[in-house]
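[User] Once you have settled down, look closely at the record that follows, and write a paragraph about the fold.
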Amino acid sequence: MGNKVHPNSVRLGYIHDWESKWFSLREMPALIGEDFKIRNLVKNTFRAAAVSWVGIERAGSYLRVNIHTARPGVVIGKKGADIEAIRTQIENLTQRKTFINVMEIKDPELDARLVAEAIAMQLEKRIAYRRAMRRAMERTMQAGALGIKVMVGGRLNGAEIARREWMREGRVPLHTFCADVDYGIAEAMTTAGVIGVKVWIFKKQLFVKSPKELLLAAKKEGALAPAAMPASEPAPAPVAEQPVVAETGVVDFGPEGENKDADA
């Protein structure tokens, strides 16, 4: 058995950020359980709203909940009724003054959790797992991803023996820390049992550029350099040629200069 590391946890503090932002050594166990209850409450209340993740921030007696969803209108509700109802439930649960922000996910095809939930919903509707996987991979690659890997496990197609099947398109560098790899899981409740879905999406690679990108950047800088200097600014004065000290210690003043050390 190989030891698996969560793709998001291994990149925390490097290219990924924490979902919970607070610090309290004394109340840490209670607050972790409270965060778990808040996230379950939000996801169970807005199952049809495509909620990807819930960020929680604490400052003193105040609590801020950031709901990241692909359908903000469903979360807010008519005239903000749904968002006020969930805010009241969270305040009763935590006994803290709560503020809720709804943040829209502009590219749901590039969010691993939403892609996994979409595949799970198709499996619950008795769609063939290979077709559901292939369709999700095509949409993600068309959205601009560099690679995607999808794995499903369980009693696939009602088989009596559970197994795992996976498909991959592009590249998914899990060992590269500067690679922005998103990871999400979901569960499909079928008549044959629970089928788990895992999705890895390689969005982009940070801090590293290919030779082709470096060449294009150099050409772009070279093309913009003359235009960057204003016309009214006088041209810089020519800099006198500096002597070059060779490894032997002899001072060379260039082809037109004289080597005084050699004459001496």
